[in-house]
Design a protein that fits this description.
Blueprint: H1 3-9, H2 15-19, H3 26-35, H4 42-45, H5 54-59, E1 87-91, E2 94-98, H6 125-136, E3 143-147, H7 156-167, E4 174-178, H8 181-184, H9 191-197, E5 203-207, H10 217-228, E6 232-239, H11 247-259, E7 263-269, H12 283-294, E8 304-309, E9 314-317, E10 323-325, E11 331-334, E12 340-343, E13 355-357, H13 359-364
Parallel strand pairs: 2-3, 3-4, 4-5, 5-6, 6-7, 7-8
Antiparallel strand pairs: 1-2, 8-9, 10-11, 11-12, 12-13
Length: 365
Amino acid sequence: MEDWQLELRQAITTADQLAAHFAVEVDALRPVIERYPLSITPHYLSLIEQPGDPIWRQCVPDPAELIDDGAPLDPLSEEEHAPLPGIIHRYPDRALLLVSGSCGVYCRFCTRKRQVGTRAMSYTFGELDNAIAYIARTPAIKDVILSGGDPLLLPDLFLKQLLDKLRRIEHVEIIRLATRLPVTLPSRITGRLCTLLQNYPPLYLLTHFNHPRELNAATSAACDQLAAAGVVLGNQTVLLKGVNDDPGVLAELFRGLLKIRVKPYYLHHVDLARGVGHFRTPLETGISILRTLRGTLSGLAIPHYVVDLPGGKGKLPITPEAYERSADGRIRLLTPDGDTLCFAEDARLCRDGQIFHHKAHEKSA
């Protein structure tokens, strides 16, 4: 067994284990963990300085997760865009292959928190083979993203078998790995793994740093190994209330990422998923932060601020021109296909994916 697998076995998964390290209300946390599993690796646990700090908020359960604020369980309509178990096909040229149902750390703001760590995200070898066969018979798919859960929790041999199958599909031009393990379990980034990944160019790895305290010697070494192996590194940050909703914090993070050869790629607005409302900021917060950063940071360090639109309509870069807010708090977003869609930080203000104006109807009239 490798070092990273031993460390993963030592992850905190119960309220009682957490209480051995910090003063927590065990009885308040148990019902949260029953619904949304807990996992904190020893590495990530070591980054917590005190309860309630930016690392704590990302990984420790909060009773606020059980508040039903009217947000949908599946805000991006992924299940509607799943032609087979284990695959999500929302964009014509891209497909998401869900190859793992587990993570090193279960992020409390996760869009798929209803599934990760549960039987709802457990796929058989046969189902994954069927999903790959779907990609093989769909020539429009040029880009495949391995996700889950975390694909790097797969053993090297199984990961190699998946990559081999995908690389044999002629129309698949790009393979991406969506993983948070460089942040939460950097010991997983071994020399053997990097040698394996080196054989599948062009290979892109999108990781997930949210706070500058996640940048340290271990994570830096992990990213350096990946970059040295020819893996192109990008980062997807989520804008989180009480974690990084401050231009100074994000400036430090984005500068630090460039130093370790990781390009800030997206700054995500928190999805309208159930159980994550306490992390959500107004859209204006993200706009204001990006406006501040543009005056102080190199363009290389500035990501796109995006909303993943309800109803599976895709990611929309948010600029002051892309939306308008009404007096009652509802927001109108202009989608890439010309629709005007209702969006709100408070999910009760509009139906999921409600369309105010459908440009396609106008064209056909």
